[in-house]
Amino acid sequence: MENLDNSGLSRRALTRKRMSLRTALALPRYGLLHFLQLGARASRINPGTTSRMRPLHLFSCMLRDPSTTGALLPSSPFLAKAMAEASSGSGTVVELGAGTGAITRALLAKHGAPHLIAVEINPELALGLKKRFPELDVRQAPAQDVLAGLQTNKKLVVVSSLPFRSLPAEVSAELQASLVATLERHAGSWLVQFTYQPRKPFEAPVGFRWQHHGMVWRNVPPAGVWVLRRSDEQVFRGESRAVSRSLG
Description:
- The protein is of the alpha/beta class.
- The chain folds into two domains: 1-42; 77-246, Rossmann fold.
- 42% of the residues lie in helices and 16% in strands.
- The protein has eight helices and seven strands, in the order αααβαβαβαβαβββα.
- Helix 1 packs across helix 2.
- It is globular.
């Protein structure tokens, strides 16, 4: 008969319990170390090669240059679809912070390459986009420069993955001013933006207002989709509710 301790567990069961606890405590440490090693490995891999390595490549870019990479993981297909749906009705789409191309692919499927410009300031990620989507106009440049040089008479939509609330205050303010100036120059244009925080991506400037299109729960982390338009424009006519119901 096995000896029992004060808790009523046998010594063998108690030993197994202690070993399980040690293993559980050790796993996160080894898991993170393994993830960091994979991220370093991904930085040496051609960014246009395998889809399985793209999340690690994005993570590696974020570690080495967080000022140009705002996300740890690519957007899910559900968030990409929601962002593309919110850009419906546009003639020209400019995607800011295209990253590894998760949202880019959904925008291409909806609008086609001739109507899409992808902007990515990180040189490695921009190169990966050019290799994945050779038909696409990819611009490795600051968002402000691309927006200032836009020339189109078509209805414009800016689709942004830029992390406004986590950027340095002066950089965020400059980007916001550039976006607002672009929307003011192009009548009927709007901004589609997602954010991980449960609030607006940034405060709406005078003459503009945000509309929440809903939450995408099937994303890591969950993300809210927002649209910024001029206050004096006819807004959405019930489209927001339809889009919100369709989010994953």
